[in-house]
Amino acid sequence: MANRRELDRRLLGRVLEPSPVVLVTSIYRGQPNMMTAAWLTTLGNDPARLGLAIMPGRLTHEFISRSEAFGLSVMSLDQLDAVHRCGTVSGRDEDKFATTGLLGMDATEIEAPLIEQGVAWVECGLVSRFSVSDHDLFVGEVLAVSAIDELFSDRWRIQEGSELIHHIAGAEYTGLGKPYTVRLNPEDDEE
Hints:
The protein contains four helices and twelve strands, in the order αβββββαβααββββββ. The protein is mainly beta. It has a single domain (9-190), classed as Electron Transport, Fmn-binding Protein, Chain A (Pnp Oxidase, Chain A, Roll). It starts with 11 loop residues before the first helix and ends in a 15-residue tail after the last strand. The model has no long low-confidence stretch (mean pLDDT 88).
């Protein structure tokens, strides 16, 4: 048996990762912004809700708190450099759209833009915000969801070259590139 070692509790997020990476978009007083995020989770289906963890002091935190809406753009590995850059600089210091070459596109239900180069998009209205540890949890009611038809039906159609970005730690990422199917009854394969 492998040796077990105790870890610093602050490594919890890294133990539970890799997580899907999204670009969170928001807008306030006509100024759009985007931020890279991997700390998000589904909170319910009826109504559809999700949770997004953002550290106070971030421009996106301020914009979502004021506008009460945000967008999520699920990104693939072909946009990795731009996605990483959006997580390392502040929208207070630079226009991330200009420096990354990512393009905004109109959302259907919110004012904030979505990212055209994404592979799926979620639009949310803010339901509530909770202070949790050193991050705030934004609870969004899902107002609209869309995805590229070739990549998503009722689940992701994982294809080589369209790998979804998952965060490991720091500047390390991986792609979700190969699906596996569990067969509990081998006789099912013989039919």
